[in-house]
Amino acid sequence: MTLDLYGFGPALAAGALMTIKLALSALTVGLVLGLLGALARTSSIKPLRWLGGTYSTLVRGVPELLWVLLIYFGTVNLMHALGELFGKPELELNAFAAGTIALGLCFGSYATEVFRGAILAIPKGHSEAGMALGLSKGRILWRVVLPQMWRISLPGLGNLFMILMKDTALVSVIGLEEIMRRSQIAVTASKQPFTFFMVAAFIYLGLTIIAMIGMHWLEKRAGRGFKRSAA
Amino acid sequence: MNWEVIFKYLPQLAQGAILTLELVAIAVLAGLILALPMGIARASRHWYVRALPYGYIFFFRGTPLLVQLFLVYYGLAQFESVRKGPLWTYLRDPFWCAVITMTLHTAAYIAEILRGAIQAVPPGEIEAARALGMSRFQALFYIILPRAARIGLPAYSNEVILMVKASALASTVTLLELTGMSRTIIARTYMPVEIFFAAGLFYLLIAFVLVQAFRLLERKLRVDALQGR
């Protein structure tokens, strides 16, 4: 294996950057969906509970790859109709947007369960105390429930983020030029499949290690205030 | 939604589903066999026994299955010795490549489940076995492993479901399992929503049946009672 990677180094680096961008944007979408899902799942309104449950069950039961393909190829007609409505018939969901939505959807469905568990783990007395202090429902959610939920669910979210980081590789199937796709291009040009897929593997390994360190730091930071108040 | 198309291609999708089940069945069973010694080694007290399975598990859990699949299917062909070797008949067949990759991948996860389960066996039970005069191996086979099997079963069932979903990746190496078959049908009909919808239902059905089957097994093995719940 030569160290200059047959001149594909910069392309692979750009791919790694794209992978990070995709992971972060899918994470954002997933966190929002997960939060909404968990609030629906723990709501006192029955149809909302049902909706949240259906979301997490349906999305978790179908492979991530299928979601990527379905959202990329399945929305062509929908986007076309939307495009005509806004006078842009060429409107199309690009691979990045489709990947973000699909991976965000999958992350959100797992995050729903993590957040739900965290919400249920918060002692009931806390929100009752908030109510006794005369806080509104919205303020109890914002000031009491969410901060605690966040701290409890961090380890679970860390795991999910690591899985998301690896799942970004799936978006290469619809042509987004992230690490996996860039490696495939390099393989076609160099005829060195093992070399380049191994390089891709180690880039993913590096990214998951960085993510792991970041999550540990975040957990420590989130736990700090808690320990102080508990002591 | 065009239901006619779904009904028309149902038999082909079912055929794909059978291949999916075959892939998963071989992978999770072979993975379990491979994971047994690894999980035991991983729970060892000596670092040099733990080190090798740790490296293996770290690599396979830290990289995407897609990369691993491409490494086996496309990557190994880079080496002349592999192409001329006796295993080439299997290594150029996408089915065996998918089976090998999925087995290696799931073995890493199952080994971690096993390690957790072995370490969760109450120390008092192991001490009791040793006090009764059982050798280390007897304690392992008669006490620790049967107990760990029950403790690890719920996590193992999760892993099986995850492998059902992961098997969709086999479609990227031209295998016509459920996702691969759907993509082939879509190339013919241009109806992605309908066919992927039907494929999704198949996956949901498979997952549902497996969840129920494992629940039954857990009840039969009385997993809940043994875990003090």
UniProtKB/TrEMBL annotation, chain A:
One of its GO terms (cellular component) is ATP-binding cassette (ABC) transporter complex. This is Amino acid ABC transporter permease protein. The chain crosses the membrane at residues 12-39, 65-83, 95-115, 157-176, 196-218. Its main location: membrane. Belongs to the binding-protein-dependent transport system permease family. HisMQ subfamily. Residues 16-215 form the ABC transmembrane type-1 domain. The keyword Membrane applies.
From TrEMBL, chain B:
Pfam families: BPD_transp_1. GO terms for biological process: amino acid transport. It comes from Metapseudomonas resinovorans NBRC 106553. Keywords: Amino-acid transport, Cell inner membrane, Cell membrane, Membrane, Transmembrane, Transmembrane helix, Transport. The chain crosses the membrane at residues 12-36, 56-76, 96-118, 193-214. Belongs to the binding-protein-dependent transport system permease family. HisMQ subfamily. This is Arginine ABC transporter permease protein ArtM. Its main location: membrane.
